[in-house]
Write a structure and sequence with these properties.
- This protein is α+β, with helices and mostly antiparallel strands.
- It has three domains: 3-89; 103-181; 190-333, 2-Layer Sandwich (Heat Shock Protein 90).
- The chain has helices spanning 3-11, 15-53, 65-89, 103-147, 155-181, 194-211, 230-247, 278-283, 299-309; strands at residues 190-193, 215-219, 225-228, 253-260, 264-271, 313-318, 324-333.
- Strands 1, 2, 3, 4, 5, 6 and 7 form a seven-stranded mixed sheet that branches.
- A hairpin with a 5-residue loop joins strand 6 and strand 7 (324-333).
- Helix 7 (230-247) packs antiparallel against helix 9 (299-309).
- The longest helix has 45 residues, at 103-147.
């Protein structure tokens, strides 16, 4: 609701009263333009007639100062009515305008509150469920490790124990991703040097790229800070680089580039891999959507949420057999502080 409607509601100005004020302005204007001059002319003639009848022609009465003040005051009142009446007459004071807030606003606010309450409930339930699953999983892991070390040497028992541990690692990784996706871990908000953060992640991923015979390029801009979570930023960049490495064949190329503007900074992760179809591109940020046989489909959904939590934006461009480019956009943090990841 705009300020005009609130003002009208506060002072209870119905449209009929606005038109009444406009009519008063018109009356004041007529009074100043016609009534006062006519009254002054009549008073002057009466005074002249009285002086002629009494033979006091030289006895002119001075113009009364009260008359001057009456004229000035009337002009001021008339001008106030003239200036205010068009505004008040056009003031939006219908019944629909005076609703504070409107029914639609109340419904939207209620939906937003329900959504926030539902998200909070889901996060709480997810945190509790993850804890309840992780506790027995840790105990089972210990028992499986113990089984592999007890009794006579048995290759089959050792092999099955390794399989069980591998699957438990997958479950643990899935629980970690659920924790990040469900907002069970609150993000930090602190200045982060984006150049240092990206450089550190590229150093970590350099060994993976070298093992897969992929050339990793890094082109950084001048040091610039964003306000975010160092852990979130590291997770996002690592996942994008892992995805690029999985999609890029040997002797391919993965490039990380940064450039900044007046109030924003961009970082892109591009590869020369297989790319994505239009359908996959539309759903790549959806939870549980994956084109990998062993993927959970939560990685890019987690990246999207983490970037959004840091007041940033993540976008993707891709074509089949033409590679993929992810672009992260963050608002610059003006306080230039060097913060290590």
């Amino acid at each position: 609701m705009n300020r005009q409607n609130l003002w009208a509601r506060k002072y209870n100005l119905p449209r009929t009263m606005s038109w009444a004020i406009a009519a008063l302005g018109l009356v004041a204007l007529i009074f100043v333009l016609f009534a006062l001059p006519a009254y002054y002319e009549l008073a002057t003639r009466l005074d002249t007639t009285e002086r002629i009848s009494t033979a006091h022609l030289e006895d002119r009465r001075p113009f009364s100062p009260y008359w001057r003040w009456l004229v000035i005051f009337s002009y001021l009142i008339a001008m106030c009515f003239i200036l205010l009446s068009p505004v008040l007459a056009a003031w939006p004071t219908t019944k629909a305008d005076l609703q504070l807030p409107s029914g639609r606003d109340e419904a939207e606010d209620a939906l937003e509150e329900d959504d926030l309450r539902r998200q909070s409930l889901i996060s709480t339930m997810a945190a509790g469920t993850i804890h309840e699953i992780r506790s027995p999983l840790t105990a089972a892991r210990g028992f499986v490790q113990l089984i592999g070390t007890l009794g006579p040497e048995n290759e089959l028992t050792k092999k099955y124990s390794e399989y069980a541990l591998l699957e438990m690692d997958n479950i643990e990784r899935l629980l970690q991703e659920f924790t990040l996706l469900s907002k069970a871990v609150a993000p930090k908000s602190q200045p982060v040097n984006l150049l240092d953060a990206a450089h550190n992640v590229c150093n970590i991923m350099g060994a993976v790229m070298l093992e897969r015979n992929i050339r990793l390029e890094f082109d950084g801009a001048q040091p610039a800070c964003i306000l975010g979570d160092p852990f979130y930023l590291q997770k996002v960049l690592q996942h994008l680089l892992f995805n690029a490495a999985d999609a890029t064949p040997p002797k391919g190329r993965v490039a990380v580039r940064m450039h900044s503007g007046d109030d924003q900074i961009w970082i892109t992760v591009s590869d020369t891999g297989v790319g994505m179809t239009k359908d996959n591109l539309e759903h790549c940020f959806d939870p549980f959507f994956s084109t990998k046989d062993s993927g959970t489909g939560l990685g890019l959904a987690i990246c999207h949420r983490m970037v959004t939590e840091m007041h940033g934006r993540i976008e993707v461009q891709s074509e089949p057999e033409a590679g993929t480019t992810f672009r992260l956009t963050f608002p610059l943090y003006r306080k230039r502080a060097s913060v290590e990841l």
